[in-house]
């Protein structure tokens, strides 16, 4: 019989064990092994049943066991020591505090999802896991971050696989009272509530849950409260659920409501309101409009407020394809903006922020990524290659500039090593290398023998095998009304066979089924009597992605072949709990997207942190770090005449690597049964690659290259009652109005013989019409470099041309001169251009205005 309502009853913990409740309330336990061991000691079996979640565990543990431990001085002392360690961690100065005074006081990090732990299922995939790792690393480094997201009543979805291989979705409701969350309350105990005006004269209300991620507060907005109409209670029902208006409501709540929640949080806690706002993708873009609205209430115009907001905003794009961007019907967005949602903001000013370049204003969709880029003066992709892709993809926002000049940089993602490194590997580092920091340990040291490291890897492989068997048996029972799984399920996988992992979301570009291009060849690889291979595969397709579901079905049906089902398995319901076993248990991590459509691909990083070697297309992070020491590159067949041929060629290359290089290296053993050359690569991966892949490296880069510059720039623009912002807005408006009158009317050159040589000097004299503008408003530049067949300048460089003081008959025309030294041989080309110049612009391309010689 099903219950009509479910709720969580928390255990009464004896006062002597009050430390346990304090430790459970801070999600630092999710990456802190000593705290996990403290809870596991209470009841190891119960700890596993509770999914290693202290909140759930304390609700299930036998009270008599707690009473017993309350009288155990040794255990009480242990718990107190861990609580003291937590308090020291939360209060002591760390890396960020060593940087001095010129740092942001508070940084707001907005994301639609956060993957902190399986115990708080508020994530769907890589974007959320990355956000969770960002928060954890920020905590470890002492970065004063506060994070903002939404609380989804049903999370993403739970996945089951039907007997025919088709994905099925379930949405089990979560009870926030049973999660490591607390309602944000004011000093009088009243819960904080934020309110948004929505069409129809109605209001959308949200309470604010708070989670503690080490030193980082995470605020999650929840609309499932009685103050809302029934339909509005469902705004935060599911992550990435519902249609266009539902998704728009979620993103308005995240951006607008999130900033309002931060104001309340700042008042309640006394913490500084953020200096810097970081949008993790365009979903949170409306935060900029809410901040503009507040500036308008303080007396600024829209244009002035825009300059103030842009200066302190960072935008990170994660998508390499336009199809991955949220786009809303412009009329729908207008209806919400006209509802009084943003006091002082004229929809006529706000709507152009989402306009797609080249589209008619009345016909363009409202593009969240374009709005994010227009609202942020600092932007980045998530790997070097993705930075290049992003500069090309968004180049239309900066017309007339080459892609290399588009003001989008890159910070390559990283993963949080303490979260993703297996405890067995940590224990080996502690015992042999004297450190629990596996990310920076000396894995090349003879203090760890090949045999010891090989034994640990074998143990992690066994752990994965046992977990896979348990999950498959449970899935069988779900599919067959509680029936006992057949014997073959207990034989699935082998802890002594080369194990390859492949797990991720299942959009078509990630090519889940590339390995099935030649099914019989793959079957032969899997069942080779001397060098067998086994695959462990997992992943979810979006509920609306029918093609993604078909890919899963095809793979599952292949894996159901009786002669193969013990060598290739698809594990349903991929989540963080599964991932913690999957990454360490694999010897090889495979990734075969269509290049360059993988923005970063952090799953391979997590596997590498556990000594797995990568087998990947040269895309995302792997394009930066690929080396023989770390794995193998699957050759890319970019020149193939069609997609099918490309898939065939790349799959064939994959099979060749498996048959002739990877399996031979893995099964080539010394007299002790250890694959010495394989282990040499494992060691070099752990020693040399791990430090580059850490989230601490990533967050340091964000601080040094984006957060600090954004805070400094915002302070300059906001000084003296935002006088610089006002002046900059007036200047920008004037330059835009006058730009049609700017021209390079004539360019003269000299100084070269009929056959130029390296070292010769090219002298230039350019006549430039400035119209209403003054010479202080512009920079005149020569752009030069290699000139190739398409008549474009490659590897372009710029040099300033200076006014020579020559008068002309036209008072608005100025003469600029300069010299370029020819420092390399080959085809050469140049042009002269004019760009806006202002000390508060961070890039000459920023306004998207350029006048070039025709």
Automatic annotation (TrEMBL):
Entry annotated with the keyword Nucleotide-binding: no
Enzyme class: transferase
Keyword flag Glycosyltransferase: yes
Domain DUF3417: 13-120
UniProt-listed InterPro entries: Agluc_phsphrylas (IPR011834), Glyco_trans_35 (IPR000811), Glycogen/Maltodextrin_Phosph (IPR052182), Glycogen_phosphorylase_DUF3417 (IPR024517), Pyridoxal_P_attach_site (IPR035090)
Cofactor(s) listed in the protein's UniProt record: pyridoxal 5'-phosphate
UniProt name for this protein: glycogen phosphorylase
Organism encoding this protein: Agromyces indicus
Organism lineage string: Bacteria, Bacillati, Actinomycetota, Actinomycetes, Micrococcales
